[in-house]
């Protein structure tokens, strides 16, 4: 897909925290800059991997502002702004717009289960009307977490009613057929489809998708960048195999603390293990296991890390 706003590899960025569990934008910004220098085209901040729903509104605003203050360009970031509350979603979306972000990622209103498509259409219509439609919205399809899928019919209704505002989707369902259906039905109209699963990057690009927004990109973005640049051929195929292997390694333990462990061991910064309950850090055995799995895949040390440390 040409001219996608976030086309390419986007890391679902981990949120750094201080020992008291407060956000640490300075440490997070350092990681974000490393990602942008090592294969990432953009950054999905304050999503599932970033533990957005463990933070309050003021904290989420402070994280975004802090990243910008520490030199992460607002235009590279797609913050998650979807909340269970309509007014919270509107407030965070307007805040992201005011900071200069080019798009936001919206979960559906996830507390009440099994809403109708009519109810979801009404919710997103209110969000669009109250935010003035001045910032592109990306739909976050993650039914395993939200329990609310976005149907093809609902997406079609939103695109017809609000052309150019509902700009795309991150599909973390793991159902490739669903991702392809989005591409087949809407990509010709400029709808950007991003895989939430690393193993589908090469495939979704070939189908006309825009790229990926993934958790494992916190450590495997180097190879994602190769896939996005090359698309096909031996180098792209080998890089895609690495994405698939590292994704498998990442989900061999609880995903978010596992990725924190990889970054902590790679940087020597134990602070990356700090995580808000109900999540917990890995046990020592789990930490050894995921480190070994990434090493067995050939992904360690993380490419570009030594150069980044030397530049500090």
What can you tell me about this protein's structure?
This is Dihydrodipicolinate synthase family protein. Keywords: Lyase. With about 300 residues, the protein is α/β, with parallel strands linked by helices. The chain has a single domain, classed as TIM Barrel (Alpha-Beta Barrel), CATH 3.20.20.70. It is built from 13 helices and seven strands. It has helices spanning about 25-35, 55-70, 85-100, 115-130, 145, 150-160, 175-185, 200-205, 215-230, 235-250, 255-265, 285-295, 305-310, and strands at about 10, 40-45, 105, 135-140, 165-170, 190-195, 210-215. Helix 2 (about 55-70) packs parallel to helix 3 and helix 3 crosses helix 4. It is globular and about 50 Å long. The protein starts with 7 loop residues before the first strand and ends with a helix.
Keywords:
7-stranded parallel β-sheet, lyase, 312 residues, TIM Barrel, 13 helices, alpha/beta, 7 strands, DapA-like, 4-hydroxy-tetrahydrodipicolinate synthase activity, single chain, 10% strand, Dihydrodipicolinate synthase family protein
């Amino acid at each position: 897909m040409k001219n996608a706003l976030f086309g390419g590899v986007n890391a679902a960025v981990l949120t750094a925290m201080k020992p008291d569990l407060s956000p640490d934008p300075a440490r997070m910004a350092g990681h974000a800059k490393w990602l942008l220098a090592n294969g990432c085209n953009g950054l999905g901040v304050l999503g599932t991997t970033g533990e957005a729903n463990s933070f309050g509104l003021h904290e989420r605003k402070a994280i975004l502002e802090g990243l910008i203050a520490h030199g992460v360009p607002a235009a590279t970031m797609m913050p998650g702004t979807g909340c269970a509350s309509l007014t919270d979603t509107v407030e965070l979306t307007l805040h992201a717009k005011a900071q200069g972000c080019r798009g936001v990622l919206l979960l559906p209103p996830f507390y009440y289960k099994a809403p109708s498509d009519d109810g979801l259409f009404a919710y997103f219509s209110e969000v669009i009307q109250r935010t003035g439609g001045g910032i592109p919205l990306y739909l976050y399809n993650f039914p395993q977490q939200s329990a609310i899928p976005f149907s093809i019919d609902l997406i079609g209704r939103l695109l017809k009613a609000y052309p150019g505002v509902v700009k795309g989707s991150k599909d973390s369902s793991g159902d490739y057929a669903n991702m392809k259906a989005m591409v087949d039905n809407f990509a010709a109209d400029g709808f950007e489809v991003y895989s939430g699963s690393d193993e589908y990057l090469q495939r979704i690009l070939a189908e006309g998708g825009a790229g990926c927004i993934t958790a494992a990109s916190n450590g495997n973005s180097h190879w994602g960048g190769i896939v996005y640049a090359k698309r096909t051929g031996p180098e792209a195929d080998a890089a895609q195999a690495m994405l698939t292997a590292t994704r498998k390694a990442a989900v061999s333990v609880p995903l978010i603390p596992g990725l924190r462990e990889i970054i902590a061991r790679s940087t020597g910064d134990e602070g990356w293990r700090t995580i808000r309950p109900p999540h917990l850090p890995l046990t020592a055995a789990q930490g050894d296991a995921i480190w070994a799995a990434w090493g067995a895949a050939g992904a360690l040390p993380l490419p570009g890390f030594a150069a980044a440390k030397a530049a500090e």
